[in-house]
Design goal:
The protein is mostly helical. The chain is about 70% helix and about 0% strand. It has 4 helices and no strands. The radius of gyration is 18 Å and the shape is elongated. About 0% of the residues are buried.
Length: about 110
């Protein structure tokens, strides 16, 4: 990847409003197995809504809270790794920085797309 490619990737955050961003443009926020687990848990909760709506909402709240907590852990771990590299005087691998930036941009776009 060239410096121009990285700059284009970074500047793509200035594109049109996020509502027009296709889901395929989003960087993955979780590992595939975590995403599957979250989706399976959501489907189980949703299936229980008809029989016990109050309990389903309680479990939905817990699942959303645990998902947000996991996401915060992922970002904190990534930040700690980058800061450790910088503390040693390193610039950081451009590709790792690009991937980190993509995940931040993707998360930010998703937050604002509601």
């Amino acid at each position: 990847m060239t410096t121009a490619d990285v700059a284009n990737e970074m500047n793509s955050g200035t594109r049109e409003p996020t509502a027009n961003v296709a889901p395929s443009d989003h960087a993955p926020l979780f590992a595939d197995n975590e995403t599957r687990d979250f989706r399976t848990r959501w489907q189980d909760i949703q299936a229980g809504f008809v029989d016990d709506p109050r309990n389903a909402v309680k479990h939905a709240d817990e699942l959303v809270a645990s998902t947000i907590h996991r996401l915060a852990e992922i970002f904190a771990d990534e930040k700690a790794k980058l800061e450790a590299t910088w503390a040693r005087g390193g610039e950081g691998d451009t590709e790792a920085l690009r991937q980190a930036f993509r995940r931040y941009r993707s998360f930010f776009d998703r937050l604002l797309s509601a």
